[in-house]
Amino acid sequence: MRGPLAPLFDTCQFVSDVSGAGNNWAVGYMEYGDKYIDAIEESVRTAAERCDSLQTFVVMHSLSGGTGSGLGTRVLSILSDTYPDVFRCSSVVMPGEVDDVVTAPYNTGFALRELIEQSDCVIPLDNDALAAAAERAMGKSQVKRGSEASDKEGDAKSNVAQMTKSKLPFDTMNSIAAHMLSNLTCSLRFPGSLNMDINEIATNLVPY
């Protein structure tokens, strides 16, 4: 909210608090979900009423902490109940080996169950893979794809595991994820001869 992209967001749509869910899925889903359900519904309703052709909700959250896994999936439940006919797409960040949240496996397990029930399409992002891609994008890794060194299994993970949380290139990792989502939805936002909606993307990606 204080970054260089802050002007892109409508401050009237923010629902915020000063504390997190303590890395506990149940706190995020039940306590904060019940506390902010009315504010979230009102914020979504206001945004939806401005749309000429509402096609999908894209929910972006992580699964390792309590807020992203708990409140994030509670938002999906709210959208499922309030807008049952609108497509729901989730872009979730899966915890990696360098994750320092002890309860991450439990939070992820509880969240995955809700994603299966409430989301029409889930696009998982691996934290370790994002960090490795960010390293390559920043020029820290000079190994070219297809070379003997790059074919050694676990090289990328080993490099990522050696980095501490404070040294992870979060800005670059977020930029990679943002570009993925931007490219995924560009055919919905711009005219073109090969345009498709989000439902067609899911139909082509989901085998059953």
Automatic annotation (TrEMBL):
InterPro entries: Epsilon_tubulin, Tubulin, Tubulin/FtsZ_GTPase_sf, Tubulin_CS, Tubulin_FtsZ_GTPase. Residues 1-192 form the Tubulin/FtsZ GTPase domain. Keywords: GTP-binding, Microtubule, Nucleotide-binding. GO terms for biological process: microtubule-based process. SMART domains: Tubulin. It comes from the Eukaryota. GO terms for molecular function: GTP binding. Signal peptide: none annotated. Gene3D superfamilies: Tubulin/FtsZ, GTPase domain (3.40.50.1440). Residues 141-163 are annotated as: Disordered. GO terms for cellular component: microtubule. Residues 145-156 have a biased composition (Basic and acidic residues). Belongs to the tubulin family. This is Tubulin/FtsZ GTPase domain-containing protein. It comes from Neobodo designis.
